[in-house]
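User: Last request for today: this protein with iron/sulfur cluster, please.
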Amino acid sequence: MFVLLNHLQRLRRATPPSPVRARGSLAVRHVDAGSCNGCEHELAAATNPFYDLQQYGLNVVASPRHADVLLVTGAITTRMAGPLRTAYEAMPEPRLVAALGDCALGCNLLGDQAELAGPLEAILPVDLRIPGCPPTPKAIAQALTAALHRLATD
Ligand code: SF4
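Assistant: Here's the final one, the structure of the complex with iron/sulfur cluster:
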């Protein structure tokens, strides 16, 4: 069994990510880079049956290799700066980076701490800004559907 899993893992690594994105859909990889979990609660609410992000073709995926958007929450800790860059490098083009919440946008809610690497913008190019502490599910849904439109027209 272990050998089979290893073989499958090697096969997956050898297969390049498809350059063709399903039309009208957006795969989102979420990374918590030091959040209080408030933003995650609102993101989870955006996928509930009321806001139902999936109806617009927006899906949260487990791997950056399958993602169109890297969605980052939280004040960016120094320990998360490297993993964020790694996740970004793994994403196929075209790719977008979204900063979700005031912490990721660098509003300095936690003050100047040595453990913080600064706003997301200091680590990666940010394409989408979703302000709020935390942003509402509606604001998250609107920003992500705007990203879907942007990728579709690129
Ligand atoms: S923006 Fe507000 S809700 Fe979101 S992680 Fe920061 S403190 Fe928490």
